[in-house]
Amino acid sequence: MEFHQFYLGCLAHASYLIGSEGQAAIVDPQRDVDQYVEEAAARGLVITAIIETHLHADFVSGHSELAERTGAPIYVGRRADATFEHVAVHDGMEVRLGALTLKFLETPGHTPEGISVLVVDPDAPAKLLSGDTLFIGDVGRPDLVGAKGYTADQMAGMMYDTLREKILPLPDEVEVYPAHGAGSACGRFMANERSSTLGEQRRSNWALQPMSREEFVAQLTSGLSRPPAYFAHDAEMNRRGAEDLSELASATPLSVDEVRERQRAGALVLDVRTAESYGRGHVPGAINIGLAGAFAPWAGTLVTIGTPLVLVGHDAAQIREARIRLARIGHDSVVGHLDGGMDAWIAARQPIATLPQMSVQELRALVDGGRPPQLVDVRRQGEHEAGHVPGARHIPLDELVTRVDEIDPRRPTFVICGSGYRSSAACGLLARHGVVALANVAGGHTAWQEAGLPLEAPTRSVPEASTHSRTVSRAAT
User: Fold this and answer.
1) What are the Cα distances from residue 79, in Å, to 54, 108, 132, 156, 420?
2) Residue whose C-alpha is closest to residue 376's, from 453, 462, 439
3) In this structure, are 361 and 458 located in the same domain?
4) Using CB atoms within 10 A as the burial measure, which of 51, 94, 165, 306 is most buried?
């Protein structure tokens, strides 16, 4: 068997190549598909099958372009209502791939159309490509947009049946390879490991422990955060089949005057540099989502899909990287980039906005002063509840725009997150909504803790389900 896992860290997304006797199948491809064609060719394989375990909501799939380039059929669950040409998969269906057998299992629970692929090799343990059904340490959320017409409770009930009727009967030695890892919004308690065995998951994964249907549904549906705003759009793009990346216009170089004209016409300037560079000087009205962090998920969350975008970066390489990462989550409306970056803007003597970067020691002095500062913590609920700077008002970043009226625009406002990354984005959003006296807390909560500064006590414990999973990574820079 030829087997290769491709892992895209920004989206915590795993896709796969399976090969045997000159043939290859690609499972859950990301939108830019060159790597699959190149890897198959390097191994002397021809791509003869493309498999989607479900209609992904957190990224745009490249199944349509890959099918056009290779002529391979696309296999997708029969409940997907896909409008692109495909083979509808039903439970127990098998496809030969050289000496291998790909056995499809219908595994609804994360989405109604979800399938898993059992790769049977006569000379090695079977591999289960479990999509977003079974993760390492967790299972897929039951409340995302692929489940139209179903409640979260109904989907959770499907997941309970799937795990006990389709997954748990498999042997312990089956190797488990999911479509996502720690950091993905498709689950809550995923472990850092990118693969496991079913035996290990039977011992450690909370969702595979003995419990009643009612207990399982209650645990799987409790404490769910709001799905990112772009998920519905991406799932629908995947249902139709996305436009080929080669057909998207590249980011056109724009002069300073052209950028200003685009802004007047409603374009948003998206600055992809570091928080520090953005703080030293940026185009007025620009927001900052740095390429160094979880760029694509936050761009999809904070910027409405379809918004005309003008990019600002350090160099051409940053612009190219931003363009492809935006396309991976369906932001196909980039209209250009500032030619020459901020150097060109400064040379043209245009107004420059700045964002002060406050140290945690300076913040401590304000916290201890006579009048508490207006401090906004934009981390996630669990992060804030695990400990926060005394007096901080908690408004998660993905709720900030809808709750901006909770912030007094007349008072100086200081924004903190885990590292300074999310808070920099938050400051840009607040500035666009009339909050002008802003400062970003450099280093964020991490720097506060490392300095040994006091925290307010947690207000509640970590959800019970997480105690069943292995070491997890829940950071969002």
Assistant:
1) 9, 10, 16, 17, 43
2) 439
3) yes
4) 51
Decide if 476 is inside a domain. Answer: no
DSSP-assigned beta bridge partners for residue 5: 16
7 and 137 share one domain = yes
Examine the fold and report which residue of 310, 327, 347 is the final residue of a domain before the chain moves on: 347
Q: At what angle do helices 213-221 and 152-162 cross, to 10 degrees?
A: 130
Reduce the DSSP state of residue 364 to 3 states and report it: helix
* Rounded Cα–Cα distance for residues 366 and 162 (Å): 54
Length, in residues, of the chain: 477
Say yes or no: 145 and 8 in one domain: yes
| 261: number of Cβ within 10 Å | 12
Model pLDDT, residue 417 = 98
CB 289 within 8 A of CB 431: no
Give the domain range for residue 424: 357-468
pLDDT of residue 387: 95
What strands, in cross-sheet order, belong to the sheet with 357-358? 357-358, 438-441, 413-416, 374-377, 393-394
Contacts of 68 (CB under 8 A, 6+ apart): 244
User: Residues 37, 165: one domain?
Assistant: yes
Indicate whether 371 pLDDT > 70: yes
Same domain? For 121 and 25 the reply is yes
Flag whether pLDDT at 436 surpasses 90. no
Name 87's Cβ contacts closer than 8 Å, sequence gap at least 6: 73, 74, 75, 76
DSSP 244-281: PGGGSPP--EE-HHHHHHHHHTTPEEEE-S-HHHHHH-
- The pLDDT value recorded for residue 470 is 37
Token pair of 77 as six digits: 């669950």
